[in-house]
């Protein structure tokens, strides 16, 4: 097990008290799967509708992922870069993914991550990004490492419906999961060192992998191992993560509920997020409210209220210094969650991406720019 005495790079961890105003942004992952012209179109739509921050991914194909970063940077979009640790380039040829039994993708085990391959791949990508004059505002190594969908050290069961683990002691292979956490801490250390060696991004914030908020009951239905975010943050803190990161990443998908229930859900889920003088603040690197309607023009009335309540809860946490950023998932790829509907930003989308402390109406409202909607499917590892 790694200890808090881990060596760190010479670049100091950012003081949240010196940070700029709260960041409100959007997710648009796997732009590397699109042609250059489609990347220009999608990112142009995002920028034209007033989005100033975006969570983008460094995934295969890396060349095209970097093309998208260059376009976003040129458009003035500030970038949170999610580094997909499931990239097979970071694993030896002998490493075999854990099966998802056809219900979810087969995924590599975090404990099999080859740290030398990770350092080599990340260093090369960051040098190319730096040579293009791109500044990364933040970098987030990994995604939902507390859920079997993105961490092969957690199991997918052959049949859904049985009771799944409620804590680390119940995991089928606790030792493998803990080895994976040890590898993860080393990967975060490497990330800080390599980012610190850049010219344009050396002051980028390091955000720990956004953790899934999937409930135990939902995990039972899906037949997937997962752990509560608070438990995983505690395990990472025992290993010294606070010496390596500027903030904790967390994901929030609460469903459409009354405003008071949504507020309580957010407050409970983010209870480990603290101001910088007492702990670490959080970045909500994904959040979303579903709208399953497909007809045009979109009827977004039910989602509007839930999105407004979520933004109110986030802004209370931001005012307290416990939350630094919130990135909605997603722009145009997820049929139920996307904000770009019927060739325009939906009404709920205007509320989701409005700058912190403003109203989504009048002079501060994002403009609704029409363009063809993108048609590819959501992200995968």
Describe the model:
This protein is of the alpha/beta class. It has one domain: TIM Barrel (Alpha-Beta Barrel), CATH 3.20.20.80. The protein is 31% helix and 12% strand. The protein has nine helices and ten strands. The chain has an eight-stranded parallel sheet. A two-stranded antiparallel ribbon has the order 9-10. Helix 1 (36-48) runs parallel beside helix 2 (62-74), helix 3 (115-131) packs parallel to helix 4 and helix 7 packs across helix 8. It is globular.
Keywords:
two-stranded antiparallel ribbon, single chain, TIM Barrel, 381 residues, 8-stranded parallel β-sheet, 31% helix, 9 helices, alpha/beta
Helix-strand blueprint:
Elements: E1 23-27, H1 36-48, E2 53-58, H2 62-74, E3 78-83, H3 115-131, E4 136-141, H4 174-196, E5 205-206, H5 216-222, H6 229-238, E6 248-252, H7 259-269, E7 282-287, H8 301-319, E8 323-328, E9 340-341, E10 344-345, H9 347-352
Parallel strand pairs: 1-2, 1-8, 2-3, 3-4, 4-5, 6-7, 7-8
Antiparallel strand pairs: 9-10
Quick description:
The protein has nine helices and ten strands.
CATH class: Alpha Beta
Helix content: 25-40%
**Straight-line distance between termini:** 27 Å
Q: What is the CATH superfamily classification?
A: Glycosidases
CATH third-level topology = TIM Barrel
At CATH level 2, the architecture is Alpha-Beta Barrel
Count the helices. How many? Answer: 9
Mean pLDDT over the residues: 90
Task: Report on the biggest sheet.
Answer: 8 strands, parallel
Molecular shape: globular
Strand share of the residues? 5-15%
Order of helices and strands: EHEHEHEHEHHEHEHEEEH
Strands side by side in the biggest sheet: 5-4-3-2-1-8-7-6
- Beta-strand segment tally: 10
């Amino acid at each position: 097990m790694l200890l808090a005495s881990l060596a760190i790079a010479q670049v100091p961890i950012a003081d949240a008290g010196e940070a700029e105003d709260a960041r409100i942004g959007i997710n648009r992952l796997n732009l590397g799967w699109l042609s250059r012209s489609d990347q220009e179109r999608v990112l142009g739509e995002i920028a034209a509708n007033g989005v100033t921050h975006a969570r983008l991914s460094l995934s295969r194909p890396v060349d095209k992922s970097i093309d998208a970063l260059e376009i976003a940077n040129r458009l003035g979009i500030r970038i949170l870069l999610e580094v997909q640790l499931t990239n097979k380039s970071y694993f030896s040829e002998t490493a075999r993914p854990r099966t998802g039994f056809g219900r979810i993708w087969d995924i590599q085990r975090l404990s099999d991550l080859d740290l030398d391959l990770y350092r080599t791949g990340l260093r090369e990508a960051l040098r190319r990004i730096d040579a293009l004059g791109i500044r990364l505002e933040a970098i987030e190594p990994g995604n939902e490492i507390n859920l079997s969908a993105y961490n092969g050290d957690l199991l997918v069961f052959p049949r859904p419906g049985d009771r799944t683990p409620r804590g680390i002691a119940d995991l089928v292979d606790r030792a493998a999961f803990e080895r994976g956490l040890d590898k993860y801490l080393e990967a975060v250390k490497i990330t800080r060192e390599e980012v610190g060696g850049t010219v344009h991004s050396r002051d980028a914030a390091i955000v720990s992998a956004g953790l899934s908020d999937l409930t135990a009951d939902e995990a039972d239905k899906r037949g997937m191992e997962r752990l509560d975010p608070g438990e995983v943050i505690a395990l990472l803190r025992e290993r010294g993560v606070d010496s390596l990161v500027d903030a904790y990443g967390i994901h929030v998908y609460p469903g459409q509920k009354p405003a008071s229930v949504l507020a309580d859900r957010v407050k409970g889920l983010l209870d480990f997020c603290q101001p910088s003088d007492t702990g670490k603040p959080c970045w909500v690197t994904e959040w979303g409210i579903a709208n399953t309607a497909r007809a045009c023009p979109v009827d977004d009335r039910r989602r509007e209220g839930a999105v407004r309540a979520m933004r109110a809860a986030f802004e209370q946490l931001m005012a307290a210094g416990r939350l630094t950023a919130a990135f909605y998932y997603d722009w145009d790829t997820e049929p139920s969650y996307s904000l770009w509907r019927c060739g325009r930003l939906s009404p709920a989308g205007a509320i989701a991406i409005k700058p912190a402390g403003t109203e989504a109406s009048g002079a501060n409202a994002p403009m609704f720019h029409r363009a063809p909607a993108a048609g590819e499917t959501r992200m995968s590892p």
